[in-house]
Each structure stands twice: as C-alpha cells, then as structure tokens.
C-alpha cells in the first residue's frame, strides 16, 4: 500500500472527501517526521514503535576501488514491530 492508496482507503472507510483524507494522512506523516527529526520516539500500541538509532563513525571501503573511507556518525529511524502486529502477520501463513 502506498500513500495514495492509504488516502483512498481512509476516504472510503470514513466517508470523508479525498481532500480531507489527504489532509489527515499528511498531518500524521508530517507530525511523525518532525517528531523523529527532533530525536523523539513514537509508540503506537499494538502496531509498533519508531526509534532513532545512533551509529558511530567507522572506516569502510569503497567496493569499486578498495579505498578506505571514513563513514561519519549518523542517526537513522528504525521501526520495531509490536507484539499484536507481529502475531497477526505471522498467523497469515
């Protein structure tokens, strides 16, 4: 499912206009993005949590040339699936 399919599903499920559903989805995504960018975690019970993982700098290699390069430290978002979602997806086998 992509963003436009999510907007369409919300519009149909709630009988909202496509414009209103789009506004809701964009507000949620923008708020989540801003929260993660500020270094805060997001927890949605039964679904999962988004946390920021911090990675130290390290020396890597350019696979083409073999040259040693310094990789700077970075912070990346990471999704940790919740127990209920994990069980529901696993039961679909």
Q: Look at the helices and sheets and give the structural class.
A: alpha+beta
Our estimate of the beta-strand percent is 25-35%
Report the span from N to C terminus.
Answer: 19 Å
Extract low-pLDDT stretches.
none
Number of strands: 5
Radius of gyration: 19 Å
Arithmetic mean pLDDT: 95
What distinguishing features does this structure have?
single chain, 93 residues, alpha+beta, two-stranded antiparallel ribbon, 3 helices
List the helices and strands and how they pair.
Blueprint: H1 3-14, H2 18-37, E1 42-44, E2 48-55, E3 58-61, E4 68-71, E5 74-81, H3 83-90
Helix pairs in contact: 1-2
Could you explain the architecture of this structure?
The strands form 2 sheets. A 3-stranded antiparallel β-sheet has the order 1-2-5. Strands 3-4 form a two-stranded antiparallel sheet. It has 3 helices and 5 strands. 43% of the residues lie in helices and 29% in strands. The mean pLDDT is 95. The chain has helices at 3-14, 18-37, 83-90, and strands spanning 42-44, 48-55, 58-61, 68-71, 74-81. It has a domain at 1-40. It starts with a helix and ends with a helix. With 93 residues, it is an alpha+beta fold.
């Amino acid at each position: 499912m992509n963003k436009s399919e999510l907007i369409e599903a919300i519009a149909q499920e709630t009988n909202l206009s496509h414009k209103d559903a789009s506004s809701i989805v964009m507000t949620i995504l923008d708020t989540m993005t801003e929260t993660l960018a500020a270094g805060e975690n997001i927890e949605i019970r039964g679904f999962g949590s988004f946390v920021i993982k911090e990675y130290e700098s390290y020396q890597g290699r350019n696979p083409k040339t073999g040259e040693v390069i310094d990789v700077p430290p970075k912070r990346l978002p990471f999704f940790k699936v919740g127990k209920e979602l994990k069980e529901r997806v696993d039961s679909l086998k």
